[in-house]
Amino acid sequence: DTAVSQTPKYLVTQMGNDKSIKCEQNLGHDTMYWYKQDSKKFLKIMFSYNNKELIINETVPNRFSPKSPDKAHLNLHINSLELGDSAVYFCASSPTGPNEKLFFGSGTQLSVL
Amino acid sequence: DAKTTQPNSMESNEEEPVHLPCNHSTISGTDYIHWYRQLPSQGPEYVIHGLTSNVNNRMASLAIAEDRKSSTLILHRATLRDAAVYYCILRDEGYGGSQGNLIFGKGTKLSVKP
Known about the structure:
Chain A is mostly beta strands. Chain A has strands at 4-7, 10-13, 19-25, 31-37, 43-50, 53-57, 64-67, 75-78, 87-94, 103-104, 108-112. By secondary structure, chain B is mostly beta strands.
């Protein structure tokens, strides 16, 4: 069983559309994250949720809205997609506690045309 | 911003040891040193972490300088599957909102030749 799974793996869409990326973890972790990896391969944290509550919200446009229906899921909804949103988005999870290791999903490659 | 400095790339031969260096001269007393790697087309994967003492696990060893201003990730016998980008990251031991904020730098791209 995949520990952290994201769907879809690839997402191609037009500018201005609204899209969602789903993430599920079956590790029983309390904390989940979204990271963005741009074309230069820099990985930056976007959001962190602990027990369905937002913990970290880095400088991310309001068009990005995470939703955590339960602690096993953290979905990412993006409104009014822009060309600059094209990137690979990674979901991750970890137990709660100092220095717990993160488990990452395999990524969703978003291409905005 | 990343607080570590790593070489952009390194090459290794298969079956030989690899020493990946990382400088972190501004490390604080509560910063742990973490290493993650990212294989092509995959998400990052935890490798190892430590505070002051050298650490070993099934994947690698971590050698930490006495002054903690540098560290070295050691892959004892590189395989083709070890070709990846290796990230050295400082992470504060503090519990709370910042605990998950792994700040990735550019990392070191390791190539392994057969």
